[in-house]
Specification:
The complex is a heterodimer. Helix content of chain A is about 40%, strand content about 25%. Chain A is of the alpha+beta class. Chain B has helices at about 20-30, 35-55, 60-75, 85-105, 110-115, 125-130, 135-145, 150-160, 165-170, 175-195. Classes of the chains: A alpha+beta, B mainly alpha.
Chain lengths: ~230, ~200
């Protein structure tokens, strides 16, 4: 994603109209871009004004319920000043949020994988996306977005397909690592699904990552040219 | 922010002066429950109204509104006035919580289908109907009217409908880059029309 692209998301961010992965990516951008943070603060103050038009008397019992609950709720400590430690905590938070989003995408798509494996894979996905050196590239494809997160320090990539039009139940999206005319499978999504996430371990030095639609379960070699490719860094 | 020193003249203001959310939130941050009750009275109709607008179900709205207001109490010490006003902070929390609830409950595709089915209903009209005589509401209504149709629809579907920009693009039959851009343009125009500034 280019700087121009991500900057244009400030409005959608202020409206809470990004999905979790985009939100985390934009949050990461904000932390490094003071003018963007200023713009977002202003746009959030603007969206908050839209609440003015929604005024509606709550049920009377809400007041008593809230006051009773706060009487037994401990307040958090004040925020620390912006420091390295804070940034790291923020990074962990974002990575967690992304992993939650990734899990949400994956939910229902992973039928045969045992829970423990899922948790371990989710932790590795989280580690790649949350790595300080992670970079993300995106392309639109079939009404959705193909995103590739690459982290050299973690020696892995995370590929997400988000909101592509779903193939029929006999077909699936398959990912390919491509160099010249050579393609190596990098994972198959579940049949009939337009969203999913795959961890690709090891930075292989391939030129690009592509996606095709193949028969369910995947094939050895792509049967068509890729629908879209992302150059790999 | 710092109230140490000479007595703030605002304290001597007549009783009918509406309480200031920023001052109340600073007191809440120090654990002042009475200030919280006053803040509750000031913001709860908008918190509840906003959450209900997004969720539509009154029982869920009440539950989420309670979560939001308790969250305001709990995290008040972390409020950073350099990032905006107290009310903006409260309504940002409220909107985020409402949207989280919506997305946790329904897959996007289902929601888009449901909304497409009831698309005759336009959120903007609801806003206009709901706006009564309050000055702030009149101002919001007037400023919404300065937007282009697409800007206004993109903003109201996202904010009052709780939709992602992808869902908004589906609903409006517009491209993702267009919707993204309209959301930003529209908010910038609203910001300038409302005279919002931060910092």
């Amino acid at each position: 994603m280019t700087g121009v692209d991500i900057h244009a998301l400030s409005g959608a961010y202020a409206l809470d109209a990004l999905d979790d992965i985009e939100r985390a990516a934009f949050g990461r951008h904000l932390a490094a871009c003071e003018p963007c943070a200023q713009e977002v603060a202003e746009l959030q103050a603007t969206t908050a004004r839209l609440a003015d038009a929604t005024e509606l008397a709550p049920p009377a019992r809400l007041r008593a319920n809230v006051l009773a609950e706060i009487a037994v709720t401990r307040q958090v400590g004040p925020a620390k000043t912006r420091s390295g430690a804070n940034v790291n905590r923020w990074r962990r938070f974002t990575a967690g949020a992304v992993a939650a989003g990734v899990l949400a995408i994956g939910a229902g798509a992973t039928t045969y994988v045992v829970q423990e494996q899922r948790v371990r894979e989710a932790q590795r996905i989280e580690a790649v996306i949350g790595a300080p050196d992670a970079i993300v590239e995106r392309v639109p494809v079939n009404g959705g977005v193909l995103s590739v997160w690459t982290s050299s320090s973690r020696d892995a990539r995370v590929v997400t397909l988000n909101g592509l039009s779903a193939p029929d139940s006999d077909h699936a999206y398959q990912l390919w690592l491509i160099t010249g005319q050579r393609a190596t499978s990098a994972g198959v999504l579940d049949a009939g699904r337009g969203s999913g996430v795959r961890l690709v371990s090891g930075l292989t030095g391939d030129e690009s990552l592509g996606v095709t639609v193949e028969r369910a379960g995947g094939v050895d070699q792509p049967s068509t040219d890729p629908l879209a490719t992302v150059p790999l860094k | 922010m710092n109230e140490v020193g000479s007595a703030p003249p605002l304290r001597a203001a007549p009783a009918e002066t509406p309480p200031d959310a920023d001052a109340l939130l600073r007191a809440v941050a120090r654990g002042d429950e009475r200030a919280f009750a006053a803040l509750y009275d000031l913001v709860s109709p908008r918190v509840y109204g906003l959450v209900k607008r997004v969720l539509r179900d009154p029982a869920q709205a009440e539950e989420v509104a309670q979560e939001v207001l308790v969250e305001v109490w709990r995290t008040a010490p972390r409020f950073d006035p350099a990032r905006g006003s107290a009310t903006a902070w409260v309504f940002t929390i409220a909107h985020r919580r409402a949207v989280d609830r919506v997305r946790a409950e329904q897959a996007g595709a289902d929601r888009v289908r449901k909304v497409a089915a009831r698309s005759a209903e336009t959120p903007y009209d609801e806003v206009v109907d709901a706006a009564t005589t309050r000055l702030e509401q009149q101002q919001v209504r007037r400023c919404l009217k300065t937007l282009t149709e697409l800007q206004r629809e993109a903003l109201t579907l996202a904010y009052y409908g709780g939709y992602t920009y992808r869902e908004v693009a589906d609903l409006l039959g517009a491209g993702l880059p267009t919707v993204k851009t309209r959301m930003r343009d529209g908010l910038i125009r609203m910001r300038d029309c409302l005279g919002v500034s931060v910092g």
